[in-house]
UniProtKB/TrEMBL annotation:
SUPFAM superfamilies: Tetrapyrrole methylase. One of its GO terms (biological process) is methylation. It comes from Sphingobacterium multivorum. The keyword Protein biosynthesis does not apply. Belongs to the precorrin methyltransferase family. This is uroporphyrinogen-III C-methyltransferase. InterPro entries: 4pyrrol_Mease, 4pyrrol_Methylase_sf, 4pyrrole_Mease_sub1, 4pyrrole_Mease_sub2, CobA/CysG_C, Siro_Cobalamin_biosynth, Uropor_MeTrfase_CS. Pathway: Porphyrin-containing compound metabolism; siroheme biosynthesis; precorrin-2 from uroporphyrinogen III: step 1/1. It comes from the Bacteria. One of its GO terms (molecular function) is uroporphyrin-III C-methyltransferase activity.
Length: 253
């Protein structure tokens, strides 16, 4: 009888950057890994959790720059799974939210490989670390999470639908599309909607700027904020200020 493989592949989300935001399950997977294939946005401190004998292989993608093709990453996953028992594919944020994690799961399906998906905190949840809730009763009815850059390089057509909702809009990989994003809101007479750009959420070098959505391009240039960053659009961006002003007015009255 053919011996069943004991190989396990762990597709692990490392969160927005702060190592303390790792889940306990992710920590254990990294700690016991024999091989780690890691992305560009991984905080290198997280790699120190692994055993000193763990093989660490960089397979990152610099935004709009050099990158390891997904096909090569898939090949490396299979290569290491054929030779080791505990392989970790370590990704920033959450692997299944614009992280291509499911594509990598498809690579190992129908093979004698046990696959475990370990979610991570998505970078959009870093909005809360900047006093911006993604939802709030009476203000935002939901969240649209959109990609700013589809495979063909175009902006998601769903943005035109999201603009018309009362939900918060979060745009990943959209820094090269700020002009199109702003224009979409202006065309729907919503250019004055509050917006924020958050870079390096959860890390010491975290930066954020707030503005009206029509001013996204100008503000990003003035503050020299580029990619990687996420864009948050909606009334929740101004919520803290709105509530503070309301409280102050009640105190005066």
């Amino acid at each position: 009888m053919e011996k069943l493989s004991t190989t396990s592949l762990f597709i692990v989300g490392s969160g927005p950057g702060d190592p303390e935001l790792l889940t306990l399950k992710a920590y254990k997977a990294i700690e016991n890994a024999q091989v780690i294939l890691y992305d560009n946005l991984i905080n290198k401190e997280i790699l120190q959790i692994a055993d000193k004998n763990c093989l660490k292989h960089y397979v990152g993608k610099h935004p709009y720059g050099k990158y390891v093709p997904q096909e090569e990453i898939n090949r490396l996953i299979l290569h290491y799974c054929e030779r080791y028992e505990r392989v970790v594919r370590l990704k920033g944020g959450d692997p299944y939210l614009f992280g291509r994690g499911f594509e990598e799961w498809l690579t190992v399906q129908n093979r004698s490989i046990n696959m475990t998906y370990i979610p991570g905190i998505s970078s959009m949840q870093g909005a809360g670390l900047n006093d911006i809730p993604l939802t709030h009763r009476g203000v935002s009815e939901g969240v649209w999470a959109l990609t700013g850059m589809k495979k063909d390089g175009s902006l998601s057509a769903d943005l035109a639908l999201a603009v018309q909702s009362r939900s918060t809009v979060v745009i990943y990989m959209g820094m090269r599309k700020l002009d199109e994003i702003a224009r979409t809101y202006v065309l729907h007479s919503k250019g004055e909607t509050a917006a924020a750009i958050i870079q390096h959420a959860s890390l010491p070098q975290q930066r954020q700027v707030r503005c009206r959505v029509k001013d996204l391009v100008r503000i990003s240039k003035e503050h020299q904020i580029g990619h990687p960053a996420i864009i948050i659009i909606g009334d929740v961006v101004d919520l803290q200020q709105t509530l503070t002003v309301a409280a102050e007015q009640r105190r005066i009255i």
